[in-house]
Amino acid sequence: MTQAINLDPAARAIKDIVTATRTGMEFPGPVVALEDASFHVKRGEFVSLIGPSGCGKSTLLRLVSGLIKPTAGHLNVFGELIAGPRAEIGMMFQKPTLLDWKSVFDNVLLPITLAGTVKKADRERALDLIHLVGLKGFEFSYPRQLSGGMQQRVALARLLNTGAELLLLDEPFGALDEFTRERLNLELLRIQSDLDATILFVTHNIQEAVFLADRVFVMTPRPGRLAATVNVPLPRPRTIEMTKSPEYNDLVFNIRDTLGGFI
Q: Are residues 82 and 177 in the same domain?
């Protein structure tokens, strides 16, 4: 089983892993992608980000990851002003971006390979992660031999092998069919529970956002602003049967009505 990066005690004591205060991002043009965003993400929380295309959801993830720096406001991660990528933060995109010439095992082991010497314990952990995401028996298959959903499982296992405590997922299942997406959503929730990870998850799918999250951040069209925060008090573990409940559907239509007000 993978373990998270060993943060110092002061960082582990921080309850709000991400804190944004009037954070904004303007690109040359000028193009204001994000404006006046203030929010927090608690340790172990699952937060979905939803909004129209081009509203700044992916920009927000890139800011939290440290890949870009905000042009306005403040953004703290693990109690420190974000200044660049950190080992405690991992990111996954819509495309799995696997190395075609490497096996599932070698793709999952890649973060360790790039970092230096691979030990026996690293190999054992990679195998544990492959089994964790439901790919036992495919350890030495190649990406071309896998379905799209299986490739995304490999990408998820590779992300987990970084040891990151904060996982940023940018529409990771958006290109998959509905049933595969449903299975991977359940898989992701199981893994989050096992690892007590903190997750920021971008999606265009309202049902998916509600099903996964503790809270849903609803964003406006560009310039992206945080229009609403919707608490999701559905019990865990989540089940597909919950999607038939009035409570679930009320949340979905609440968010749909909020988004509809922007169109």
A: yes
